[in-house]
Amino acid sequence: MGFTRFVETGRIARISRGRYKGKLVAIVDVIDQNRVLIDGPLTRVPRQQYPVSHLHLTKFVVKFPFTAPTRIVKKALEDFKFKEKWSQTLWAERAKAKRLRSNLTDFERFKIRSVKRSKNRMIAPVFDKLKKQASKSGMLFGKPVKGTKPLPAKKPKVEGAVKKKAPKKKVGAKKPAKK
């Protein structure tokens, strides 16, 4: 499958490095294979040249004339309603969650950690029980191979039964080395 997101006039991109990291901008012009002219009137990013390697291209493309002035770019972005469309993407949701996590205090991180522990303590026994059932029926690693039998049931442990110990070896004198 080929590429679907190209560096082109009108492509919406997200800045990945620098002062405006995380802001959305529109590509206004392609200067050369390494640099583009960007403009972000709705995200307060001034018109400037920017390296392509510092941009993440989104799936959105807005129609406006080649090297359009900022006011026309702004109008095109508003008509396209790109902020609404962007907020509905999974990418935007993950970025928001990441931003929230990075602003947590120590106490908030501690509370989240304790909630996760208690949740995992409830889930683990149920998971183990299901895993045992699946391994006994041969379904743990997918469908059982034709002709295979489930594992035999384990013998129940008898209380009071003593395990037999292996006899100890006698410690004797060392044999003399052969010459």
Return the structural class: alpha+beta
Unreliable stretches (pLDDT < 50, length at least 5) are: none
Radius of gyration, taken over Cα atoms and rounded to an integer in Å: 33 Å
Read across the widest sheet, the strand sequence of neighbours is 4-3-2-1-5
**N to C succession of SSEs:** EEEEEHHHH
Number of distinct beta strands: 5
Helix tally?
A: 4
Q: How far is the first residue's CA from the last residue's CA?
A: 75 Å
Shape: elongated
Q: Can you offer a commentary on this structure?
A:
The protein is α+β, with helices and mostly antiparallel strands. It has a five-stranded antiparallel sheet. Strand 2 and strand 3 form a beta hairpin. The chain is elongated, with a radius of gyration of 33 Å. 11% of the residues are buried.
Describe this structure in a few short sentences.
This protein has helices at 70-80, 82-87, 90-102, 106-137; strands spanning 11-15, 24-30, 35-40, 45-51, 55-61. The chain is α+β, with helices and mostly antiparallel strands and 179 residues long.
Topology summary:
Blueprint: E1 11-15, E2 24-30, E3 35-40, E4 45-51, E5 55-61, H1 70-80, H2 82-87, H3 90-102, H4 106-137
Antiparallel strand pairs: 1-2, 1-5, 2-3, 3-4
What labels describe this entry?
179 residues, five-stranded antiparallel sheet, 5 strands
